[in-house]
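$ run holo --ligand "iron/sulfur cluster" --emit tokens
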Amino acid sequence: MTALPQATEKRLGLVIDLDTCVGCQACVTACKGWNDGGIGLSDQDPYGASPSGTFLNRVHSYQVAVPDGPAQVVTFPRSCLHCDNAPCVTVCPTGASYKRAEDGIVLVNEDACIGCGLCAWACPYGAREMDAAQGVMKKCTLCVDRIYNETLPEVDREPACVRTCPTNARHFGDFADPESHVSKLVAERGGYDLMPGMGTQPTNKYLPPRAKGPGAASPLAPLLDVKATGIAGWLDRMLGKI
Amino acid sequence: MHPAASVILFSTLSGLGFGFLAFLGWGALAPSGWAAFFLWALGYGLAVTGLLASTFHLGNPRNALKAFTQWRTSWLSREAWASVVTLVLLAPVALSGIFGLGLPRLVGQVGGALALGTVFTTAMIYTQIKAVPRWHHWLTPVMFLSFAVAGGATLSGRLWAPLALLSVGAVLLAVWRVGDGAFVRAGQTLGTATGLDRLGLPSVLDPAHTAGNYLKREMIFVVGRKHAAKLRKLALLLASALPALILLLPLGVWGIALAAALHLAGALAARWLFFAEAEHVVGLYYGARG
Ligand code: SF4
Ligand code: SF4
Ligand code: SF4
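-- output --
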């Protein structure tokens, strides 16, 4: 059904920490790797001149001109935010796109999808990509086939991107529980929504990069000022004249 | 947005077809015999060709029947219902006209109203998309409906058709005027898209991927300003001014045919611009708009 649930029991989602993300693309690879199983995420011309493919998670990199401070580079992972007020769900004509009442995960039932692409148009965040080979819509599943998967060891029952991140920049949890790890992170670090003006009420939150002070002087800086004396000084003066 | 031929043909042809069917349904022309056959066939032909064109936009048309299930929430599903109900309801009206069966006029009037309702649902598919600020405005359905009414009035030879054609021109001018500022008014920037406006002014350092992907192909289309300005003039001329002028000349049925053909060409140009000039906010992540 493409009607949105009034409220969901749990609100599962991700916190993405822009302070610790180093843009290594490990989450992109892990996501593609995990979700490529089964019918998969197709690539077109992957080893040719113009490769292209379906991904559920992509990492951008931006530079930020900071008014009174050094400029910053921020790497920025972008995947589905599992919005509470998901426009991608209500536009779907077939009921293929839906939000689960039990945990808030937004999914596509590929067996019902006609590949009209309207849900991808409705998503402000570019979180949906049509698979060019299969003609159906793909999106982040919040690794629903891992988080409840009792055949996996307990440590692996979290999204592939979270599990793989070498800097712990991605966190998974239940936002409906104010005591959860993710809720606390958001409260402590000022987690925020992307494009709140779009009215989508995302579940996923982003943590801002911590403020950086003015650039500290390098410990090697005093060496730059050393004046050569003795033979070295004489050499220096002679060479300077040539 | 990528101006795909399938959606341009779909919305333009079905708009004209349903517009004409509305006039036939209301009995604006009361043809009989072969004349009725050809006129109804023209209306049905345009509407159905448009609907068929839309299926070329689907990645997986095997499931097309499922699109009838979500009419409670989805405008695309409502559009599917409206078009089929209209075509089914008007079929006996057409037969009655062709064979002189004298069906009560009310059926045709309801079918005619539904035909315009169908055009409205088509327009709402685009209007509802908040992520494309240029479309997200009440002028979008006004534009779609004005095209349908002017096209239908032209094809059915109404005396006031030139006025309807001129009003299409006025609506287009309004749509472009309002639409040109829509993205800025929506207030989304790379800063709000990433939340980095908290820090300062962000810009793209490196692209997330060097090759193309679905998002870039489908949602990020750049049309040259000069190119667009020229096409706008052409659309105004063809869709509005020229056919209005031709209808005022005493050319009879040939005048109508010529005016309708020009109007259709102008409508196609205007619809190409409707897609090509529409910017999706996802472009911000890729550095569109600075
Ligand atoms: S991020 Fe996009 S695809 Fe995901 S729930 Fe929100 S609107 Fe839908
Ligand atoms: S592409 Fe599939 S999931 Fe998306 S709106 Fe169309 S039918 Fe629904
Ligand atoms: S939760 Fe799973 S599907 Fe979603 S971005 Fe992470 S790895 Fe990909």
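-- notes --
Chain A is about 20% helix and 20% strand.
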